[in-house]
Hints:
Largest sheet: 4 strands, mixed
Mean pLDDT: 94
Strand content: 5-15%
Helix content: 10-25%
Amino acid sequence: MATNGKKATAGHQVAWVFDLNKCIGCQTCSVACKVLWNEGDEGSEHMWWMTVNTQPGKGTPKDWESMGGGYSNGELQLGKLPTAEEFGGGWDYNYDEVLHGGKGRSVHLQKIAGSKTWGPNWDEDEGGGEWPNAYFFYLPRLCNHCTDASCLEACPVGALVKREEDGLVLRNEDVCEGNQLCAAACPYKKIYFNAPRGVSQQCIGCFPRIEKGVAPACVRQCPGRAAFVGFIDDETSLVHRLVNQWKVAVPLHPEYGTKPNVFYVPPLAPAPLNPDGSANENADRIPPQYLESLFGKDVHGALANLKAELAKKRRGEASEVMDALILYEWKDALGPFSKDPAELVWK
């Protein structure tokens, strides 16, 4: 099946930054997205457009990092198409029987539908390392609305478009034929298939909210103030400054070649312990080589910049970077999308 060969283009680009030192894995962003966009829709039971997985971990779909896609030397690559079981989830339980069946304690809550061997948070909090130097951190993931979106080029019917006004990659479901080449081409495996409707679906960047000046649900609902949104081409935005000026935020798997527009402030961790229980301040608890495997070589510079700014703050010196990440005023994270959705008239 031939691809359309089209490249993604945009004049203005919305981007996200997640501070992994502040993400607590509470799943509020995941639930906010699910409830807003596809809760209860037939065919979307397994869909979590926004996920927060434990790292190190296999994530969702299971082992997605080894499934391929993206670009290699500028050439589009079609990777493995995840199975429903690898995505996991889609569970349902015998609520009616337990709560309304009149059987008392003779029945208990149990799963009656959904995957059997995996789920979006199957390996939550397991992490890596060995006692007493175990470690883990949380990784929020959504569609990256990539600058060079491989899904868009792979679609043979032109169902995907990258919007000029904000760079969001959106799908015309009336055109989509459900061939799933987009999902095979996406190296992040954040495209799902809705079998009853016969179309693929993914995060839409909360574009109806963006158009009204309201931040995406994943950002506005974050209780840990870990998420930022804005136009990365706006040099005054915190997103631009964190990524391009202060260089403390990096993309996930830049080697995939799609130029993703979701960035991460890499995680710090307490110093590892020596055998006698003392702290080894000259070593890293999270192996730098592991962080490099996720975020590329630029992660080392980002960590160095972050540590330098943290040291300045501890010395009582001024640090724009730390002030931005501490986020004294939560609305600063919303960029130009600070309107209250409760105050708008939605049509």
